[in-house]
């Protein structure tokens, strides 16, 4: 059994259960503040505002609720002209540009610059990297560090696993490498899979590239002295 009355019937018989009046006829003067149905459905906005003000005066630490269904009243203040204009401007901007991307760009730029500075400090040493950056223009130094960070992220996003798999398949045709690199591979490896890109994996991979290069350089070129 549906206990909710039709909307047309509610509008035709609505009256304020606080002041027991049925006027005015303006729809903006009426409000349904809770889940109640029947004679306690509608109230005047002015009556409801006065009721909430009296309740807050008597019980300042409690939140006003409906006395029948115990629904908590949510009070929305009236919007001024400045707020309405700002909302319209924000809706227009959201339809034109991506606000989230603009807000996240300074954070990404700061992370890339920090990653570039740490890379220079790790490769050249703290004092030499500091001297290298201090000799340049601040804008040029910040741009260089940011480009280093972006470059590391893009390099770490290269699908080198697919290239290595293709190289192993080609090496399997060589007679003396057949035992090491079998000719047949599982279908799961043969299918091309799209690599899931995430910001965390890109940042972590880019930050580890200088460490890998330092280790490889130490192992392979330890006898070469830097000028």
TrEMBL record:
Main location: membrane
Domain (RING-CH-type): residue spans on this chain: 8-76
Entries under SUPFAM superfamilies matching the protein: RING/U-box
InterPro entries assigned: Znf_RING-CH (IPR011016), Znf_RING/FYVE/PHD (IPR013083)
Entry keywords, A to Z: Membrane, Metal-binding, Transmembrane, Transmembrane helix, Zinc, Zinc-finger
Topological relation to the membrane, as annotated: Multi-pass membrane protein
Keyword Ribosomal protein: no
One function term, GO molecular function aspect: zinc ion binding
Any single Pfam family the record assigns to this protein: RINGv
Source organism, top-level taxon: Eukaryota
GO cellular component terms, A-Z: membrane
Cell compartments where the protein resides: Membrane
Transmembrane segments: 199-221
SMART domains on file: RINGv
Listed name of the protein: E3 ubiquitin-protein ligase MARCHF5
Species, as recorded: Homalodisca liturata
């Amino acid at each position: 059994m549906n206990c909710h009355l039709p909307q047309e019937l509610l509008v035709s018989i609505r009256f304020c259960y606080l002041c027991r009046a049925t006027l005015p006829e303006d729809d903006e003067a009426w409000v349904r503040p809770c889940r109640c149905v029947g004679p306690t459905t509608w109230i005047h906005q002015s009556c409801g505002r006065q009721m909430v003000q009296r309740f807050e005066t008597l019980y300042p630490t409690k939140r006003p609720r409906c006395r029948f269904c115990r629904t908590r009243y949510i009070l929305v203040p009236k919007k001024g002209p400045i707020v309405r204009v700002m909302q319209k401007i924000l809706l227009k901007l959201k339809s034109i540009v991506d606000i989230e991307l603009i807000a996240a760009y300074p954070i990404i730029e700061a992370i890339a610059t920090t990653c570039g500075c740490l890379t220079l400090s790790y490769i050249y040493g703290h004092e030499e990297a500091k001297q290298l950056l201090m000799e340049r223009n601040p804008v040029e130094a910040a741009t260089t560090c940011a480009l280093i960070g972006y470059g590391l992220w893009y390099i770490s996003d290269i699908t080198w696993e697919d290239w290595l798999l293709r190289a192993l398949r080609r090496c399997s045709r060589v007679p003396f490498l057949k035992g090491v690199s079998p000719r047949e591979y599982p279908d799961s490896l043969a299918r091309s899979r799209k690599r899931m890109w995430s910001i965390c994996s890109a940042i972590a991979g880019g930050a580890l590239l200088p460490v890998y290069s330092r280790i490889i350089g130490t192992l392979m070129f330890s006898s070469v002295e830097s000028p």
